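Let us practice reading a record.
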Amino acid sequence: MKVIIIGCTHAGTSAAQQILKAHPKTDVTIYERNDNISFLSCGISLYLGGTVKSLDDMIYATPQDLEQLGAVVRTRHDVYHVDVQQKQILVEDLVTGRKFADQYDKLVLAMGSVPVVPPLQGVSLPNVLICKDYADATKIAATAKVKQHIAIIGGGYIGVELAESYSNTDHQVTLINGLHPLLSHYVDTDFSKKVGAELVAHGVDLRLNEVALKFDSDARHVYIQTDQAEHQADLAVVCVGFRAQTDLVVGQVDLNADGSIHVDQYMRTSDHDVFAAGDAVAVHYNPTQADAYAPLATNAVRQGLLVGMNIFRLTLADIGTQATSALHLYNKTLASTGLTLARAEKNGFDAAVASLTDNYRPEFMPSTTPIDMRLVYDRQTHKILGGQLYSEYDVAQSANLLSVCIQNENTIEQLAFVDMLFSPHYDRPLNYLNQLGLVAMDQETRLKP
């Protein structure tokens, strides 16, 4: 069996490892246009902030690792054409310029995503950079050593993390974010405001509701023209989101309206000899029971594993995702899972939110700290749709528990009374998530007609 994998970041690496683990005699060839694989781009801000000393520490598998398993790994090779009818790809060696064809029995599409580059004049100027991969991080880090004022365009996870990193390294930081509130894909407006206040408290010049229109540059500065003002900085970093990189297969496999690949529960595309995983693919999003685009490393790794398990024989079905994620911000943790209230209402749910702020453990302990919590639920079924937590206490695993609740279609009543441990070291006799469920129950009692 000849398997070709296009792309080798998280999904491609995971798929290759699983295929060769289960079927070590498989002929696996991997084509990757970069000179590295498995780069954890989510750690770029850690490197820029000095927490991680080398970008290479963000690489958890090398081409040599996969070659030792039996794969043929061709980095710096660009697949520029795919023909699923003929089961053929066309490849260019980016070092030598040689072009050639290769045939497959099974194809794995793991091309990932590309940054959304706004149609702005001047976005390709020398002092305007994009943040996505190893090469981008190298450029940003080198430039930031000699640049003092950094302007960041975009208020998603990457933009907020970069703002934190630069503000912690004595840079002057301006964060420009228009159209949507900060982190609006993950949290509702009140939590977005808390994040904004935290950035401002640490010296970030936060420019909300401003839309970048164009860039100008001279040898030393970049000028960002928004719909409200002009801002001067030494360097601008654009990070306004990602889109699925699926140009190779347009018209050959089924795509969603946003350009992401639609796969079935076994990670097969509409052509069952073509599998797909990672940022090029839509996930099955459990809160809405529909396709959604959620470019997260966790999703990519799981999908890659499923490709490896199912490529020879349909073995294990995908159980979907809640797009659970977390952000570390100035020694606080912001964690979320599932739908925000705004997104729940947009998807047609009769949704409500229960809010609670409480110390995570008793006040008689030497220390404690409050947790801000939100629970989004369906008023008709009482099923949990989403959750958000923000605290100096590490609430990441609590978001994971709420993710399981959504996965299992648990209700607010079940959350209120699910058995959780008690120890004054860790929580109260009723865990803070139990209490959050009780708040939702009490709220529904009051709201009943």
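A brief commentary: DSSP finds eleven helices and 25 strands in the chain.
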